[in-house]
Amino acid sequence: MIPIKYNVRNLRVRWMTTLMTVLGTALVVWASVLAFGLTDGLNHALDVTGDKLDLIVMRKGSQDEGSSGIEQQVARQVVTLPGIARDAHGQPMCSVEFVTILTQPRRANGGTVNLIVRGMEQAGRALRPGFKLVEGRDIKPGVNEAITSKQMAARFENLDLGDKIDINKVDFTVVGYFEAEGSAAESEVWTDLRDLTNARRTPGAVSVVNLRVADEASKQAIIERLQTDQQFGLKAIGEQAYYDEQKTASIAIRIVGYFIAGFLTVGAMFGAANTMYAAVAGRAREIGTLRAIGFRRRSILFSFLLESVLLCLLGGVLGCLATMPLNGLSTGTANWATFSEITFSFRFGPAVLLQGLTLALVMGLIGGLFPALRAIRLNTATALRAQ
Amino acid sequence: MKLFKYIWRNATRNKLRSSLTILSVAFSLALMTVLYGYLAMQNVWSNEAKTHNRIVVLNKQGFSGKVPIAYVDRVRRMPGIKAAVPYSWFGGTYKDEQAPFAQFGTDAKEVFNVWNEYVIAPEQLAAWQANRQGCVVDSRFAEQRGWKIGEKIPLKGTYYQFDLQLEMVGVFKAPQPTGSLWFHWDYLEEGLKSKNALLSAGNAGAVYAKVERADAIAGLCQSIDDKFASSDNPTRTQTEAAFAQMFTDMVGNIQAYIRNIGLAVMFSLTLVAANAMAMSMRERTTEVAVLKAIGFSRGRVLNLVLGESCLIAAIGGLIGLAIGGGFLQVIHKSAPQYFPFSIGDMAGGWMLWIVGVAVGIGLVSGLVPAVRAAQLSVVNGLRRVV
Amino acid sequence: MSATDARDGEPIVQIRDLYKEFHRDDFTIPVLMGINVDLRAGEFMALMGPSGSGKTTLLNLIAGLDRPTSGTLRVIGQDLGNTSEGALARWRSQHIGFIFQLYNLIPVLTAYENVELPLTLTRLGKRERREHVAAALEVVGLSDRGDHYPRQLSGGQEQRVAIARAIATDPTLLVADEPTGDLDAKSAAEILDLLQRLNEEFAKTIVMVTHDPHAAARAKRLLHLEKGVLVDDQPNGQAVKGAGR
């Protein structure tokens, strides 16, 4: 076994080449991790971290909340179903909601895009993961007020505190910002159910009922009941399942991400191979000496592979570190399931960083393999005579 | 030019190293070709949309707002409008499929006047106009799905509480694949009324109109919006191109990321190529000294090295462009409705730009080794041998 | 071919009080100390001396590869002490032909292309270049090896190609640094014959650094350097004629 110190020294002696290769690898890993972090952030936004017992009730055949519609009296009946969880005050944890889409201008000429406006009842807040107001105050029903997230305010032109949003010529004033653990709720504007349906001139309209069931057994019972009872004609799906389905939206971005990473990794592999070939060529005599001393081919192969991996991992670590300033940077894209904006943050968690390092490892292994094979194929006697 | 042969021989001297550099450049620029090809495609798409003088009337609030059906007639009667039709997105699911494809309820009498570049056989058009449940489908889409004339197409409503039982009575040929199906708006309306879904009824969804002259478009958009401004359903009228742009905008900053990733790729490649070039030049120190002794000026030595690095990068760029172009062509063939343009339709300045990037990478990567070679002291360079 | 720039009688190389020092870290290493030499057109001078005596440095200075620390150095009408590097490169390409110990041919170019290389620095057209290359290869007797790469040639042949490259532009002055240092005796003798012929037949002025007494014997004038000082300068009365062989 040739000591690692030998490889480290060699990398240091050829520091210029090492530096260039490391930087090249780092950039590739950086770009790839960026793509992974984007996908991961989008997925996280659609990953409801809330309760497994949360259900969304909508019309049979509807794919999303926006296209669902429930008659008011049916919705009120849903609220009375047995098995719905109760809050501290004994009220059912159940929110009748109306969802509509507004076309609003993004900041900085980002074009006009759709955003989800949700009219809801007070109980709906407890159904969102970690809902809390972080600035301003909550809305008062009946006076056309709205709250949204800071991320949304940063992306859209007229969502600053005190700004007015025009919904069918009715002005809604933004009075506060909330957080909900980075979930999809943070991509919405919330207002009062009645205020919104009145503005939309569809009083009494209901899109969905959001509720939390008491336990797993009642969950099945309610799902069954809504599904089969003709009086309802509704379906209930777990909130997690609902958002999981919307993740298909992120599949395209994921594919693009892997595509980018794949091409770049192959490109960088050739770069690493170049460096390692030069290392082998420059050290022919050393290799001959090592062989003469009695090191086995296997040790030499391993040593060169190790050096190559070391080289690329250095770049990988550097590339991963370089993404850190972007961690949490918020951005947005279209959720193609609802045709509306979804905001999310770049997330460079352990899994994403590990993917980046794996890329670096692969680059090092494959990029180093052929040069290392060349190293062990050198004829000892010839190698000793090399310059 | 006299030096080209020498530059070429230098580039091919260490074939392994040059090949690796070329492949590295090729793979990364293939990626850039695909990314920028995508941007170019959107450009071509919106340019294409500009040539047909079509405008789209939507509710000011966006897709979820209502455009009363009466608006179609009122738009149609305005001077300068050639034809106007309702265009209502149905979004039903076909059989057991999960994702809806594009289905629109429209006006069979007028729709081929609005999309007058689409071609349909007269007898098929007549058959559609006579069949209440009839529909026509983009010929390429029908072919892809294996639908024949007379095919029954049941669509399950997702947005509307009404299912359509359609029969394909004709196909139309569009210049680019659209993946669309057209049926009678009236059929949907009757269905909604019969289900007492009055809230959804009477909605044209959007109004598509063909304008007679391009210079009248801006004025017409304004006067349509003015006309409905004080009604319950104010409108936003825009050109088809601007409408398409909305969808692009929805994707958001992704374009910015594409460009940033492109930038990172460029830097990384420059480093890889510079590294290879530096290794090559280190091995040729004596040779450079000899050239300088013979009387090669600094500039000439500089050109020699830069020429080599640019040549290698440019070859990589061309190969990358070919791989990337091939990839785009594959996407076009396999998903024409999302990527309706072949590589030939999109060929343009951006391709030169990619090759330009390659040459640029060559220039920058060769710079340090070249300057070093140019500055090399002849005496020191020669001493290494003697 | 003939040397044209130097009028008869006027020295081609004029060296007055020439000093050359090298600096390494804080040390100053004097290499040449007060050299005075004149070289006239048509001379064939051998520079001799032990290693480190400064003979290669002097050769480099005469060839315009390096600049003196002080003193006057006029070569072929050019004051080399006060010439920019760019102008020096141009001057070298017009007036100097180089011959190295290790030939230093460009390995990726054929013999023909190697000889053509300095001609690409001139304004000559493709056809004229071809004529020059053909003539130069003819002189060194390798007309039939034009399409060979250096590795396909023997050492002696390589050196002859190098000489052809040196004379292709018809320079006034040839400088040779140990031209036979890496050759066997027979090839060395051939190279020396060739140099002698260039000197006599084509009136090339030659300055040659050498260790080899056989090589020195061919020169018309011998210079001995020791520790940076010229210790001996004398005509070589019995210059060996190699032409008989």
Quick overview:
Chain A has 387 residues and is an alpha+beta fold.
Describe this structure in words.
The complex is a heterotrimer of chains A (387), B (386) and C (245). With 387 residues, chain A is of the alpha+beta class. Chain A folds into 2 domains: 4-46 and 248-385, no CATH class; 54-214, no CATH class. Chain A has helices spanning 4-13, 15-46, 72-79, 150-155, 193-199, 216-228, 239-246, 248-282, 284-293, 297-323, 350-377, 380-385; strands at residues 54-59, 94-105, 112-120, 132-136, 145-148, 164-167, 170-179, 188-192, 208-212, 234-238, 330-335, 340-345. In chain A, the strands form 2 sheets. In chain A, strands 1, 2, 3, 4, 5, 6, 7, 8, 9 and 10 form a 10-stranded mixed β-sheet that branches. Chain A has a two-stranded antiparallel sheet with strand order 11-12. The radius of gyration of chain A is 29 Å and the shape is elongated. The mean pLDDT of chain A is 84. With 386 residues, chain B is of the alpha+beta class. Chain B folds into 2 domains: 4-47 and 253-383, no CATH class; 51-251, no CATH class. Chain B is built from 15 helices and 12 strands. Chain B has helices spanning 4-11, 15-50, 70-76, 111-114, 122-130, 139-145, 185-194, 217-228, 240-251, 254-283, 285-294, 298-334, 343-346, 349-375, 378-383; strands at residues 54-59, 81-86, 88-89, 93-94, 102-106, 119-120, 134-138, 152-156, 164-173, 180-184, 207-211, 235-239. In chain B, strands 3, 4, 5, 6, 7, 8, 9 and 10 form an 8-stranded mixed β-sheet that branches. Chain B has a 4-stranded antiparallel β-sheet with strand order 2-11-1-12. The longest helix of chain B is centred in the C-terminal third of the chain and has 37 residues, at 298-334. Chain B starts with a helix and ends with a helix. Chain C is α/β, with parallel strands linked by helices. Chain C has one domain: Rossmann fold (3-Layer(aba) Sandwich). Helix content of chain C is 31%, strand content 28%. In chain C, helix 4 packs across helix 5 and helix 5 (155-167) packs parallel to helix 6. The two termini of chain C are 24 Å apart. Chains B and C meet through helix 1, helix 11, helix 12 and helix 15 of B and helix 2 of C.
